[in-house]
Amino acid sequence: MSKRIVVIISTFLLLTVLLSSCGGQTGPAGAGSENTGSESPGTTASSGSAAAGPERSRTVRLGTSYKPTTMDPNDLRNWSSTVHAFFTFETLIYTEHTASGYKPQLAKSWEITEDGKSWIFQLRDDVDFSNGDHFTADDVVYTVERVVSEADRLVYKSYYAPTMTDAEKIDEYTVKINFSEPFPDAGGAFVALFIINSKAHQEMGDDLFHNQLLYGTGPWILDEWVDGQFSKFHKNPNYWNKAGFDPYFDNVELNFIAEPSSAIAAHLSGTLDSYSANGGISMDMVSLYDGSEDRIELVEYETCTVYDMGLSFKEGSPWLDDKLREAFDICIDRQMIIDTIFGGTGASMPVGSLHKYMTGYDETLGTPEYDPDRARQLVAESTYDGRPIEFLIHPQIVQGEEVALALADMAIAVGINMVVKSEEFAVYTTRQNAGDYDIFLLSVSSGDGNPFRSLEQIIQNYNKPDVQNWPGHEELYALIEETMGEKGMDPARRAEYAKRINKFIFENRMPRIRLVYRNVVQAQNWGIAGIDYWPDGMLRYASVNWDPSKAK
Amino acid sequence: MLVYTLRRLLQVLIVMFLVSLLVFTMIRMAPGSPARLMLSEYATEEDILAMEERMGLNKPIYEQFWKFLVDLFHGDMGESVVYHQPVLRIIGQRLPNTGILATGTVLLAILLALPLGIFAGANRGKVAELVCMVFALVGQSMASMWLGVLLIYIFSVKLGWLPALGTGGIEYLILPVITMGYPMSAGLTRVARSGMVDTLSEDYITATYAKGIGKFEVYTKYALRNALIPVVTMLGLTLGINLGGAVVVENIFSWTGIGQLMNQSVAQRDYAMVQATLLITSFLFSGINFLVDVINSFINPRLTLN
């Protein structure tokens, strides 16, 4: 008996050793994959040709929390899918996601008609899709017709261009896109309109995307997408804009990782060349990178991602009282929140109600001054009867619970009886939409430096009878409506409108109170370059490159 | 035996129907509108109503359930509102990963638990038993989240022997299988030990010793067979649970199985996906339990009486 037991135990030990050695052969990059952290002949950052510098593999492995759910570029329901679409598809114009305006991509130039209802694009004539088909105005018309006619199925129109009606081909390389009424945010709509290959889609329909045949005009070609795991791309050899972007890497692997600690472990172990998360790496996780400074660079940048507090203005809401709103605003020690919850650098103070990267930013507005004594006095003078005020949050807001608890403590300290209630996102959204809250915390980002989307959102979120209770709502509504209906796109006029709205929201603390802007940290190996970390929180991995001068 | 098997099969069918009814009803009782979640934050009430109509959510719930059952019998479990693809296609991509992980886990658990449990049971009151039970206690006390992260830290970050996450060759399987298999083997070890101790105290075992039969033969030929019944039962249950997905382990190791999918679908109120994943996992669970009952009835035919 004892002999047999010894044999069994020995077998297990042997098995363990075998398995361990099997893993050991894969090296730090993991599992038979190339060691992306190793060094091989390098090139300049902007070119695929060889140059002096540290060597490395031609495959780059990126870790991300952005997990796409669809390959259809006209049905991008989340940022993850959009981030993925950047690899293979392009738009007529693009943005650096700041107030710097729009830049040409598939369109060389554009103009807006006198009535503000149409945009006329002059297209490039030197662009081919990755399957060899030539890009023309037909592809733009086809894409617009698709998003308009299938608006009940594809989210593009409802998300970006509710008033888009049709497109007309003027000639082979000129196209006119029409709206039913002047649309101030048309630029924002066009930077999200990924142009699909009309010929291929006519032949295959949506099977084109289901079969992962992403024939776009972008710099990469999709090899394989495995839902929830990874996408693999190779360089588009016939990319039209090689003069602008010719990456060192031949292949990109985008790994989708839900658990941040695992992703960081994979990065530290050398399996990944970078890790970036939607909303950035949580500040309490950043310390896991301690000691890896010689290999990994922490990229920290400011974003337009703001923590806002939406106030209820329904009948009987205590927030209808100006004094209570002011009391709550000035009882908040924003610096303390920045220092303790966001580690000192993870967030920054708001100025006015618009970020400095956004049109309408006004530095003269300043930041609400922390004054708990005055807050206490205002609460005493207000009509607030001390009833509990429910602070609604959801767990997906990064560090949202800590923020909400800190805010509730500060409110309680000045006499506002605040209770934090965390709901599942689906429940939170439903309650928010139904106006079933006293106050809610939200983390939002305004894309491409254009504040009008968030203004429109404010209208939509409050488009219910409660609005009638807003003190001074007529003035704000008139301003917003006037802005949204403004014909033409004169930047100076738009900036002026945005400034006035910014001032109104800031001074009246209505309908939202701004808390802090969040800074974001992402991590990448030294030498990895080109990934666009935009201030609105969006990323573009598709521009990834290798810069040997920065490699260590 | 045949009657017993048919009776168990009928019970499985009844369970399946009740599960489908429960799943269908409960996901709809959860607060949060799937139409609202599908649309952008700029969607109006009209947009939401139109989306509800398109999703068939405006119809009475019994009508929705009837359509669900009819479609189910035609092998159609609906289309995911997140993926815009038939749910079975998505599940079909994930199920093999779950199957591989569950099978690896069970194999590891059996390989560890059976010998250790039998050894411990046969050496009751000795140091060997204490060592085996400490092994089991430690395994059962460890949270899989903690164990998983610890293993990644040691074997991936520090030693660089194994990949931290993902799916692929056998090397990708080792850490998740240990994370799931060790706690499972710990539980099985305890059950196997108890089974062995109970069986060895039976009169018929004493009788076999009296006949002069050797210890090894007594253990393997007479005691093991009966001691296996609770082990097989527990094994079946845990295999069924593992096939239902292991959300924590799948998340830690980025192992895209059905657990992650189910978790994500509930959050997004993807009704068709939630229904399909729950139904398939309950089917697997019921099927495995059915098999366990059949296997147990072969091990001990007295179970088929009554």
Sum up the overall morphology of chain A in one term: globular
The separation of the N and C termini of chain A measures: 58 Å
Q: How would you state the average pLDDT of chain B, rounded?
A: 83
Q: What's the SSE pattern of chain B? A: HHHHHHHHHHHHH
Largest sheet of chain B: none
Largest interface: A-B, 62 and 65 residues
Helix count of chain A, per DSSP? 17
Count helical runs of chain B.
13
Number of DSSP E strands of chain B = 0
Name the beta content range of chain A: 15-25%
Radius of gyration of chain B, CA atoms, in whole angstroms: 24 Å
- Find the structural class of chain A using helix and strand composition: alpha+beta
Mean pLDDT of chain A: 82
Multimeric status of the protein? heterodimer
Q: What is the share of helical residues of chain B?
A: over 70%
In helices, the fraction of residues of chain A equals 25-40%
CATH topology name of the domain at 97-257 in chain B? MetI-like fold
How would a crystallographer describe the biggest sheet of chain A? Answer: 11 strands, mixed
Low-confidence parts of chain B:
none
What brief labels describe this structure?
heterodimer, A: 552 residues, alpha+beta, four-stranded antiparallel beta sheet, 17 helices, B: 306 residues, mainly alpha, MetI-like fold, 13 helices
Walk me through what this model shows.
The complex is a heterodimer of chains A (552) and B (306). Chain A has 552 residues and is an alpha+beta fold. Helix content of chain A is 31%, strand content 21%. Chain A has helices at residues 2-24, 79-88, 137-149, 156-160, 186-190, 198-204, 207-210, 260-269, 283-286, 322-330, 334-340, 372-381, 400-413, 425-433, 452-461, 473-484, 491-508, and strands at 59-64, 93-95, 102-104, 107-112, 118-123, 164-171, 174-179, 220-226, 230-235, 251-256, 274-276, 296-311, 347-348, 389-393, 418-422, 439-444, 512-525, 528-529, 532-533, 539-540, 545-546. In chain A, strands 1, 8, 9, 10, 11, 12, 13, 14, 15, 16 and 17 form an eleven-stranded mixed β-sheet that branches. A four-stranded antiparallel β-sheet of chain A has the order 4-5-7-6, covered by helices on one side. Chain B has a domain at 97-257: MetI-like (MetI-like fold, Orthogonal Bundle), CATH 1.10.3720. In chain B, 77% of the residues lie in helices and 0% in strands. Chain B has 13 helices and no strands. The mean pLDDT of chain B is 83. Chains A and B meet through helix 1, helix 8, helix 14 and helix 15 of A and helix 2, helix 3, helix 5, helix 7 and helix 8 of B.
